[in-house]
Amino acid sequence: MNRRVLTILLFAFIIASACAFLVYRLMSKNVAAARPAATTGVVAAAVDLKLGTVLTASNLKTIQIAGSLPKGAILKPENAIGRGVISDLYEGEPVIESRLAAPGTGGGLAATIPNGFRACAVKVDDVVGVAGFVTPGMRVDVLISGVPPMTPGQTAVPVTVSRTILQNIQVLSAGTDYQKDAEGKAKSVQVVNLLVTPEQAQTLSLASSQAKIQLVLRNPLDTKIDKIPGTATSNLFAGDNGIPVPASAPAPRARRTTGPRPVTRGYSIEIINGSTRTQEKVASPEDKK
User: How many CB atoms neighbour CB 80 within 10 A?
Assistant: First the structure.
């Protein structure tokens, strides 16, 4: 066979092999893309679930997730049924361990309280409650306003004082409670539950009975605890710097000299010269001595 023909056949074989390899790679990718990916069934919320809800089989469903699963995802519905929701869940959202109360604790607000903390209810005014400014998960400072009690022997006039008693406190829940007024009629009262330590609960309980409480919202990322001095009503009418203007100092009194004042004796003589009259004083002989 001619050497030239062999060379042409060799090049044709190489080109055909390269084309076959490229077609194989393309077909492999298409087949892999068409093949369904492996999925895992996880438990998800069938409806929107509010904080404190106790899970049942009717408000849970199973969804398929491809790839890696969320950390703490629950794979079996029986591991979630009967546990309380400690953070709102939305329809289709996977249920994870950190969003549920521990098994056996049930539901409601008590299941959301961590160990070592307490939930303390505080009555707030309608502006804070109705406007919806305070919602679960927010952070607030607690201010009180009132007249401090008189101490034994105090004679100063009592004034209204405002000060911050607690800072960076988490809100557990906010809602409306119904209480009876002086006439026995039911009235709505805005109540906010705060997550506090036992010591802070004592302070908050005492403040609720002795002064007016006001909640002040703060940025959740701002966790700094500042030293905030209290302020009095008189400071509202102070100068531009917020410092009360001191009263003007009284005029200094003249010093009194000790001993009897010297008594001056003398005579006054009137001299008449035509139409002119003049008076001259003459010292007495005792003064000259």
Answer: 24
Q: What is the pLDDT of residues 202-226, one digit of tens each?
A: 999 888 888 888 888 888 888 888 8
pLDDT (tens digit per residue) in 256-268: 555 555 555 566 7
Q: Which residue has the tokens 């209810």?
A: 121
Segments of 92-206 assigned E as strands = 118-124, 139-146, 161-180, 186-196
Measure the CA–CA gap between 81 and 49, rounded to whole angstroms: 13
Query: Is residue 212 domain-resident?
Result: yes
> 217 and 123: one domain?
yes
pLDDT < 70 stretches in the chain: 1, 31-37, 125-132, 153-156, 176-189, 239-267, 273-276, 282-289
Which pLDDT value is given to residue 181?
52
Cβ atoms within 10 A of the Cβ of 223, count?
10
What CATH number does residue 101 fall under?
A: 3.90.1210.10
Domain that holds residue 138: 118-149+159-221
d(CA 211, CA 119): 20
The backbone torsions φ and ψ at residue 152, rounded to the nearest 5 degrees and listed phi first, read -55, 130
Name which of 133, 137, 195, 192 is nearest 166 in CA terms: 195
**Distance, first Cα to last Cα, the chain:** 170
3-state secondary structure of 146: strand
Longest dimension (CA), the chain: 177
Whole-number pLDDT of residue 178: 45
135 lies in the same domain as 206? yes
Domain total of the chain: 2
Alpha-carbon dihedral 230, 232, 236, 242, rounded to 10 degrees: -50
pTM for this predicted structure? 0.54
Residues 123 and 202 occupy one common structural domain: yes
Tell me the two tokens of residue 220: 């959740």
